[in-house]
Specification:
The protein has 155 residues and is an alpha+beta fold. Helix content is 46%, strand content 20%. The chain has 5 helices and 6 strands, in the order βββββααβααα. The chain has helices at residues 63-73, 81-97, 105-119, 121-131, 137-154; strands at residues 11-18, 24-31, 37-43, 50-52, 58-59, 102-104. Strand 4 and strand 5 form a beta hairpin.
Length: 155
């Protein structure tokens, strides 16, 4: 580890602890040359899989895009911000635990629909109408009936 003050290559670890949040290792270090002290943190670096779009192109996963899609579907719906955060976290956990380096955008769309169906049926229908490209009223009715059957099973 290079010293941030003099750029010397040799530093010594004086103390190692788990951070207060429990998500990192905190190390107190001292430079062998200038004798100054500094702190470093080690954190887990998780890499999300790449997203393969319908046209075959690949792009990096973007949480902002996922969150934006959910927020658009949930616009003016009585869903708490914490519930939205939990939905994003749930989708990301499923992506990470899939173990895949690439996932189809369709897979992410299905995960979004599952979360929206659980959160708010109206938001689910909104998203499904765009995602599945509904072309007539019958497709809307089918989606509404599907959401209604899901509600009856939960009651």
């Amino acid at each position: 580890m290079k010293c941030p003050f003099c750029q010397h290559d040799e530093t010594h670890v004086l103390d190692t602890r788990v951070s207060e949040e429990g998500d990192a290792i905190k190390r107190r270090r001292r430079c062998g040359k200038c004798d100054k002290r500094f702190t470093t943190y080690e954190r887990i670096e998780l890499s999300m899989p790449f997203v393969v779009k319908k046209n075959g192109s690949r792009t990096e996963y973007a949480q902002a895009k996922l969150r934006g899609s959910l927020m658009l579907a949930l616009r003016k719906r009585p869903v708490a911000a914490a519930a939205l955060d939990n939905a994003v976290q749930s989708i990301e956990e499923k992506l990470l635990t899939s173990g895949k380096r690439e996932v189809d955008s369709n897979y992410i769309g299905e995960l979004v629909m599952q979360e929206l169906k659980r959160l708010d049926k109206v938001a689910y229908i909104r998203f499904a109408s765009v995602y599945k490209n509904f072309e007539d009223l019958a497709e809307f009715q089918d989606a509404i009936e599907e959401a209604g059957h899901e509600r009856k099973r939960q009651e």
